[in-house]
Hints:
Layout: H1 5-14, H2 17-27, E1 39-40, H3 41-50, H4 55-67, E2 71-74, E3 77-80, H5 96-99, E4 107-111, H6 119-131, E5 135-137, E6 141-145, H7 151-163, E7 169-173, H8 178-185, H9 190-211, H10 216-234, H11 247-272
Antiparallel strand pairs: 1-3, 2-3, 4-6, 4-7, 5-6
Helix pairs in contact: 1-10, 2-4, 3-4, 6-7, 9-11
Amino acid sequence: xxxxxxxxxxxxxxxxxxxxxxxxxxxxxxxxxxxxxxxxxxxxxxxxxxxxxxxxxxxxxxxxxxxxxxxxxxxxxxxxxxxxxxxxxxxxxxxxxxxxxxxxxxxxxxxxxxxxxxxxxxxxxxxxxxxxxxxxxxxxxxxxxxxxxxxxxxxxxxxxxxxxxxxxxxxxxxxxxxxxxxxxxxxxxxxxxxxxxxxxxxxxxxxxxxxxxxxxxxxxxxxxxxxxxxxxxxxxxxxxxxxxxxxxxxxxxxxxxxxxxxxxxxxxxxxxx
Length: 273
């Protein structure tokens, strides 16, 4: 997906209030302030006004998403229901800093074994696998580099939640022959990922220059439009090891994104605190 303000603003205008409230609560995590992981209706309505979201649509979105179980309401504040899970998908982009570990060249493999899974379950598993950075290899199963802390536990948590039964085979592959290794290494769009790291870094750098001269309201609208698009793309990153991608480009993007959040934080705190 291309990252630019025109596309971001167009999507902001067309997306529903339900989607916006979920993304708003998700995006606040980037400020790294624990008190802002849940917001009151008053806070959300104040933000909605600044973002040209009507009070009626915001209240309806909060009610609807709470009834659907996507939001939880506690002591007058709303938070994402999935935030209570030990492993959250999509992954929070900053968590890569403490999740990544040295890759020894081994791979995590998960296979359905003898389980008979219907097409709906398989489709849901593939959706989870994509967010976990797993790729399906015919005759093997879902596989990815074993380069993340708690990867096995994370994968089992999400796969078991889908199939609701035991029987999955999960193991590590080591000392793979060159032919299979080459096939595995080519299963991810590495060139596309590296290009995203570069393009997104340039865009966020330009945004930092622009918002330095913007009014608070302009910062709110511009950063919400851009930020949700950025987070959407970062959440799809498979977190591959340095041996497979341009880690310096990825690190540079993450560091620049942290700086971006620091720059927009004052304007957001004025309406959230």
